[in-house]
Amino acid sequence: MADFFQLDSQTIETEEDLINQVYPIIKEIGFSAGLFSYTPVGWLPSRNPGVVRRAISIGLKEEIFDSWLQHHNLKPTLSPSPMSHSFDVFRKQMVNRISPKMFSLNQMLSKGYEYRSPAGDRWLRKIKHSGVEQLFSVPHFSVRSEFWSLGLFRYAEDSDDTPPTAEQSATLVKLVTDLAEVSIEKLHWREIAKDKIKKPLTKRELDCLYWASKGHTAEETADELNLQVETIRKYIKNACYKLNARNKVSAVSNAHQLGLLGYTLDVSVKSE
């Protein structure tokens, strides 16, 4: 089995090559489809997942993949997905884990789950309506806080709450490690995902992003910095523009990826 799970990275030059190698592995261990994704900053100090930059569908139903892309702002849409107002409940848990985990959608909806919310329930019902019954998620982190994830889906026709064996799980962890290396060396995901700064950020803009990274609202940040709320919002808006970010969460993620907030992780920058 170990040989079958071995990725032949020398023959992978495109995303299609990767899909062709990984899909048979997924089917062999009883899963229907997969989703491989890359997040430059896995988690933020607010304990929320960072922003997804790249993703590959491995046999995933088109409606699920499209909704997932819209949810993570990777695909524009005129009619936003009902899942676009909250983080993916699986990612919310997996960015705080180092080992794989099996999820049963039926159990989550009936018995509850960590970080449960109405938006999370909508997310689960949406993909369950598309035929998904179980998900096995395999995380991989780098020392740079990057996060790769391989999600393995079971549709209703393959439904089985039994997780992969210990041996299968171990080889899947190795597989995701190899996929991460391929995404860097062959697919150049780091270069594609790297953001460019339009202009240097001011100290006040960095201060505002720091408190935003801690999960503070504009009102709470205004109290910390002794500034007006509208001033805080202006600084955040300027920072978003300079970091090519669509929103505050994306700006914080970009700033961490670029090392701009590293010096403030455990240091208060409250003004005198």
Main β-sheet, in a few words? 5 strands, antiparallel
Number of helices: 12
Total domains: 2
Strand content: 5-15%
Low-confidence stretches: 76-86, 263-272
What's the N-to-C terminus distance?
A: 63 Å
- Order of strands across the main sheet: 2-1-5-4-3
Rounded radius of gyration (Å): 20 Å
Q: Which structural class matches the secondary elements? A: alpha+beta
Under CATH, the topology of the largest domain is which?
Answer: Beta-Lactamase
Shape: globular
Order of helices and strands: HHEEHHEHHEEHHHHHH
Q: What's the name of the CATH homologous superfamily of the largest domain?
A: Transcription factor LuxR-like, autoinducer-binding domain
What is the oligomer described by this structure? Answer: single chain
Q: Give the CATH architecture of the largest domain.
A: 2-Layer Sandwich
Binned, the helix content reads 40-55%
